[in-house]
Amino acid sequence: MPLSSRTEAGCQGTTSPVPPRPDDCMINWGNGIRVTNDGPAAFMCSGGVVYTSGGETIDPPLAVGATIAEAGFTCTSAENGISCVDDATGHGFRIAPDSNEVY
Fold first, then answer.
1. Model pTM greater than 0.70?
2. Is the CB of residue 84 less than 8 Å from the CB of residue 10?
3. Three-class secondary structure of residue 100 per DSSP
4. How far apart are CA 2 and CA 89, in angstroms?
5. Beta partners for 46?
6. 38, 37, 41, 39: which is closest to 11 by C-alpha?
7. C-alpha span between 82 and 100 (Å, rounded)
């Protein structure tokens, strides 16, 4: 998703464990992970759905075995969760309902 100040890839959904909410997050915390073009992946502080194609309903999850490569990021869905990586830096994450990792 190209934004005015950065490019990012992310995945929203419930996961565990979630690190403690930072003091500067006053809205929903830990319901997704993103990686930007300027650093390692991190948990999201967001007020709602961030990653959408703009339709009236929430987009379906990426099907297991599917890959999306766009804007310098590659995201892949596997049995152990969805992974996204910044192709240039190698920073990324894996998110699943009962586990996650950021790198």
1. yes
2. yes
3. strand
4. 17
5. 28
6. 41
7. 9
